[in-house]
Amino acid sequence: MVFVRHDSVTLKSPLRPHQPGNTFKAIITGEPDLLVVKSVNSSFHSIPDLAEWLHRSDIRAIAICGITTNHCCETTARVASNLGFDTWFVLDATHTFDRADLDGVTVSADMLARITATNLDGEFAHVLNTADALERIVC
């Protein structure tokens, strides 16, 4: 299991180190096999090098979950696919927020998630839900 933490370098970001948004939420439990720290929207542009660690660990498939669906999760899925990983995008295990479009019209978080799923499925990732992902895991 890999945990990824976004350490923003933007001064007013709640994801800056030592800010409340930078810490893992209480629902995230356990000890990761690897802690990845990044300051951009892809987990593959990080310290330590995630792709190198996955290859060294002989891991060829990844399941993506986290925040935010249409930013870091989507970008990580695209890069993972480009790097040749079998990429699962666990849609109901991601989260995003309503956003205003260029005209100031609010696009709902649900719609943004659906658009991300549409963009990724079949091209960059297998989009599935948590129950289906758990059924596919071979132990």
Describe this structure in words.
The protein is built from 4 helices and 8 strands. The protein has 139 residues and is α/β, with parallel strands linked by helices. It has one domain (2-136): 3-Layer(aba) Sandwich (Rossmann fold). The strands form 3 sheets. Strands 1-2-3 form a 3-stranded mixed β-sheet, with no helix packed on it. It is globular.
Features:
single chain, 139 residues, alpha/beta, Rossmann fold, three-stranded mixed β-sheet
Across the major sheet, the strand order is: 1-2-3
- Poorly predicted segments: none
**Helix run count:** 4
What is the subunit organization of this protein?
single chain
The biggest sheet amounts to: 3 strands, mixed
How would you spell out the order of helices and strands?
EEEHEHEEEHEH
- What does the overall shape look like? globular
CATH architecture, by name, is 3-Layer(aba) Sandwich
Number of strands: 8
CATH topology-level fold name: Rossmann fold
Q: Percent of residues in beta strands?
A: 25-35%
CA-CA gap between termini? 14 Å
Structural class: alpha/beta
CATH superfamily: Isochorismatase-like
Would you spell out the secondary-structure blueprint of this structure?
Blueprint: E1 2-6, E2 34-38, E3 46-47, H1 50-56, E4 61-67, H2 69-82, E5 86-95, E6 99-100, E7 106-107, H3 109-120, E8 126-128, H4 130-136
Parallel strand pairs: 1-2, 4-5, 5-8
Antiparallel strand pairs: 2-3, 6-7
Helix pairs in contact: 2-3
Summary, kept brief:
The protein has 139 residues and is α/β, with parallel strands linked by helices. The chain contains four helices and eight strands; from the N terminus they run βββαβαβββαβα.
